[in-house]
Amino acid sequence: MADPSTYRPSPGTIPEAPGVYKFRDAGGRVVYVGKAKSLRSRLNSYFADLAGLHDRTRQMVTTAASVEWTIVSTEVEALQLEYNWIKEFDPRFNVRYRDDKSYPVLAVTLHERFPRLYVYRGPRRKGVRYFGPYAHAWAIRETLDLLLRVFPARTCSAGVFKRHNQMGRPCLLGYIDKCSAPCVGRVSADEHRDIVDDFCDFLAGRTDAMVRRVEKEMLAASEELEFERAARLRDDLGALRRALEKQAVVLGDGTDADVVAFAQDELEASVQVFHVRGGRVRGQRGWVVDKVEEVDVVGLVDQFVTQFYGEQVEGAESTGVVAMAVPREVLVPELPADAEVLERWLTDLRGSKVQIRVPQRGDKRALMETVARNAVEQFQLHKLKRAGDLTARSAALQELQELLGLDTAPLRIECTDISHVQGTDVVASLVVFEDGLARKSEYRRFAIREAADEGDVASIAEVVRRRFQAYLKETANDVPGQVPGIDPETGKPRRFSYAPNLLVVDGAGPQAQAASDVLAELGITDVAVVGLAKRLEEVWVPGEVDPVILPRASEALYLLQRVRDEAHRFAIAYHRQKRSKRMTTSELDEVPGLGQTRKAALLKHFGSLKKLREASIDEISGVPGVGRRTAEAVHASLTTGSGAASTEGESS
Fold it and tell me: Where, per UniProt, does this protein localize (predicted)?
């Protein structure tokens, strides 16, 4: 591992001009490429204290052995040069937004004499026009099947086409009028290309003109008493409209935009893009990428626009449809710092004006929220994918044992997290994972008592103490000769009868040390304790000065993140429930003599405080268990305004 100070340039030698820089390893290979408005300011940030760098950045600067830079005249030149170098050198630490080959597209082989339509996955090829990508291959085949009756273009492979040409008779699709059968000369090459061009125009968004043309031909055939032709055109019109229904109208006619959204944590980011052409969602795609540096949404937008549209244009230049690759609008959650520079660059690529905007209201804002939900969902699925794989879980447990120096693999892991709002309604969660899977029946939650006003460290200590005191109490009741941890009367496991192999606390060194001190105080020595800090996903071992840095792509880190995130979710859910209950019943707390049972009965009967406030004394006294005097007290308390004031005070 290289020491960055050994190759750090002298501060005075780095220019303040805009430019592009390359980090190279000891073998001379480029490991990272970046751009900057000020090279001096940007490069100096890489040579700060290593402990303050993002995990991935720290790994990059310690892998590199030298850095070099190139000065450019404008920021647009820097954008272009950065993209070209990333494409040329393919640096291992740069994010590449390549097309995900798992997404199918509809390909049209325009370079062939008789173009072919087919479903395709893989890298872009010269002379082929692509539509999509689509979420599922069956969605393409359904749409294609509908459109073939209107645009009967060839869909067969070269071998099938050649065989039927030699046989002199078409395939089944030719007999059922879903292919114009150019293989046997039913249409000429020019006529077949016209069919394919109409098909491409329809998928490119020029749908209204196509529908109007077919409708006009249908009416003309009907007036000329060509009823068979009119019936066929009617069916064609229905097929076109059904194909349009499969692509929901989301924006106004003529809208040409890509809608981009992100979901992220400290180490990775999920990106989702919806492609809207002619006001309709024509395709979507998504990625989950490593974060090279600690960047916010603004930085992610900057990276994505540069990488994605550079790749898109290169794939489109061979087919002459660059305008389809770069839309008129790019809708993003936040504007990048150099939005104007990116707009000029995209405008040069497209050949006409391109805008980068943040939608504020209306249909575009609603679609942005939909794309954002897709990004979050994709990120969660990515996180869960490894957790559900048996091989990955086994590898994670083995890695944890090796990296943390445990005697055995941590088959049972427990994690605790604290949740509160400015010290109020302090609660804690305890989640359990066995063999790398969540065991939700073992989850427990705690309302913090003594340490509620003393901070998270004291709260962690209280939770650990209460959990393991219960464990010691229950194990003390085990009867020799019987299965440990099982209640002999019910035959079911006791609530805290099993100790974990590994206890994870959400936090850094102080939280982990507090949990370890409590276990030592209770005389429990066979439970390992670690803290998982959110900022850089550092693993803190009690008594150690420096944290353990797990490999960012390791199964062990994924498992710890999953355990920590589940504890966080469970704690927040309990906190919201407790806070909501307190807020709901606070007005009724002021009613003298009204206990929890009758409070619950009133709220259940009326459904809400609002309806209870509107009820008469007779209606309130009609609730079982609520007498006339109590009803009068409730009515007086809710209508005088004192209850409302009390609630407002508690909310603040």
Answer: Cytoplasm
